Protein 1
Amino acid sequence: MKAITFDIAGRNGWCERTIAIHTLVIAGWTGRDTVAMEKHIRELEELGVKRPAYTPVFYRVAADRLSVAPTMQVTGEESSGEVEFVLVKDGGETYVGIASDHTDRQVETYGITVSKQMCDKPCSNTLWRLSDVAGHWDELLLRSYATIDGERVLYQEGKVTAMRAPQDLLDQFAQRGGRFVDGTAMLCGTLAAIGGIRPAERFEFVLEDPVLGRTLRHAYSIETLPVAG
């Protein structure tokens, strides 16, 4: 179990809420646009990752992997981040946040579930109520930046419409036997990388709400540990 104190930003102010996360789920292959999803599948195939047997897929990861820390350590130089919106359930209410499904790409070529477990899943310490954005959900924007060899570049950009809507994902999760109950967090899929998937020294990501004029953001630096053999 991982207890994280979040700022809940509402239409009329904010409050602190400590949420005990006991279930962390990574939803994969969640594309609403099958053409865009096929592009991401091909990206990973180029790295040796097998196609999924069905979509979407729901991978379980240790709850302790969810982190609001500004740094993370990884083994070797084959990992990378990807921006995703995250759903969190607590007190009977669903919240929306922003996270990175940082993944070891080398391990991913022989075991996707294991690769998801290899790295922390950085997230912002601020959440929105899903009910506050549900009416204009399709207007929300995802964006990420990667610092590579000292240069900050736009890494991903697009609307959340690239992925299945929250309720659709939760319905699919239930059909696979999942229970989105209090203490559950779910990362919900990503966008294709501009210029291809690659490692970085620093990763930044945002979720923008142009209707209410607000942004969720987080950034983390990556410390690469040596591989001794």
Protein 2
Amino acid sequence: MNKDFNYSGLKLGIIGGGQLGKIMSQKAKKMGFNVTILDPTPNCPAAQVSDRQIIGGFYDKEKLTQIVNESDVTTFELEHIDTSVLKELYDAGHNIHPSPYVMELIQNKYEQKKLLDEKGIPVPAYKDVKNNDDLASFGFPVIQKAKLGGYDGKGVQMLKTPQDIQNCIKAESFIEELVDIDKELAIIVARNIEGEIKCYPVVEMLFDERVNICDSVMAPARVSKHIEQKAIDVSIDSIKALDGVGIFGVELFLTKKGEVLVNEIAPRPHNSGHYTVEACATSQFEQIIRAVTNLPLGSTKLISPAVMVNLLGEEGYEGEPFIEGIHEALDIPELSFHFYGKSVTKPFRKMGHITVLDDDINKALEKANKAKNILKIKGSKKV
């Protein structure tokens, strides 16, 4: 796409119709673009705010071909898709970003790690697993990861003792050393077709240890300028190594020794960047639209410190969602409430999030934790 392209009524295709696609679509509509969603669930969250939905699966070659053919630009809100037909369409000249080749590489966490390692990006020590003996290569405890299909804590197993091998992941996998983590950090990196790169602030991620899902995000991270710059440098190098176009969530480990290691990369808007909607000059969701349509990238300036908290489905409930505590929570100053419009809640399912602003990051965290204790997403049935 060149600068002479008529952006009036640009047709954008988004593969995936969850909460990320929903906010992407809202930002694209603000810019006057026409949005088509591909998702197997009728009236999925993104379809509720888009012009059209193609109902189809992410491995349906016919429907994937349809959305690409009907769009000026196609992008993604998830990585678990059939790349084979998309590679053919990309090679035939269709605008698909990130490219299906980048998506295919990132789908395989082992190949992703191997490429970063080969390009000199610091990563935890890792090893391919061909048999159970390989699981013991680094001693115990050790982290085992499925090569394909993992997300939100799924496909990751800690093996604490040799006895745990009997409970290991029974799919293609690799192991990683157990890193002595001080903090888990993340950065959203944007890169457009012309190679322009912009980084958002380094953020700190806090996890719900019950299911290893990101619970809260603090922006900016409570780290030194030296660590901040290290994190920015390795993140930019990672996206250059991938030759990626779009938005990338780079997850990082800060070790107790002060090393910054790349954990993994998501080739799409990322949970750690939700705070950007209220706290930054340009949100990650507008930024991906700019990047994949080859518009200049927007400012990533942090307007205010912020804390984002995921609203997960309450344990013990499923069915039609019921929001408990919304009146009391929205009484908290500078709190923004996002509900994704999913028709069914399940334990620990991401149902929405809140973002709280404050000039003092610690006060923002205090207000966010107060809201977290008030807001509960329950379901119509107890389980």
Protein 3
Amino acid sequence: MADTPDSPSLPKPMQAWLQQLSAHQRYSAHTLAAYRQDLKHLLHAHPDTALERLTENHVRQALARLHAQGMQPRSLARALAAWRSFFRWWAPQAGLPSNPAEGVRAPKIPQSLPKALSVEQAQVLLDRPGLPTPNSAVDKRGQAMFEVLYGSGLRLAELVSLDVQAMRLPGYESTGWLQRDERLITVRGKGGKTRSVPLGRQAALAIEQWLAVRHEMLPPAASTLETIRHDPALVDIHAALFLGARGKRISPRVVQLQLDRLATLAGLPVGVHPHSLRHSFASHVLQSSHDLRAVQEMLGHANISTTQIYTRLDFQHLAQAYDQAHPRARRQTEATTNNQEEPD
């Protein structure tokens, strides 16, 4: 992210920390850009205070300043987490007595349920009743991407980083790849954590149909290993599982737009984001298996508490089914309605 005249450039320790996150922990460009902006917010709040002289009070004041400017609790918590992580990394190197952000409490974030599709909505989206069978390369690519998102619970960044197979060449190493024979996908997710997730039968079939036409979007120069060894840009194109119309690795925005278009054509009453399919995967697997640990592993959550939100979603689904199906629930509802209609 480019520095602007009213936004201070980052000191070398902060630049080094972001570089460390990028090179060694494989943080996404989106996350790094957000952290960079968070660090700038801290500097902008105290432009005349040296980095090593920032105290807990300075951190509290910076947080209060952002709150007064209208920043939402979730963004405030992320900013504080970025500051805390930076000082946790840098304080020992700089000989600071403590981490000035460690004792500052993050604002309470309202916990909202993920927006998941129902099983029926997911089937309508992927089975495409009333819509033409995917025939073009673009449509087959879309079908494969959405089957993988729903069938394996990948994050959007993990999906677009997938390679056809694991590759390691000078200057290039896969961070996610397909294992067709084993019907597995291996990805390196948040924090550099690697996990393998199953590839369902429908997703595997959709991928095979896409791979049969993938060459239509592959530039000739990137078609063989011999022609790409000395060009990192061509290596990435050659390796990428999903390609865009211009012959490069597909962008997250293209995935979002194509999914939104399909949801509209399918007549779904809700907007569908790629992350909705990840939420749907988690919710539907949990409803069927009740195995929270397995869902945690497949989603790549570091803490079980992150996965537990889907138990609330599952309970909400069960509560709705109970209200609609159980005779005592119906009678209670009817009785409540009748009582409301009768005057005292």
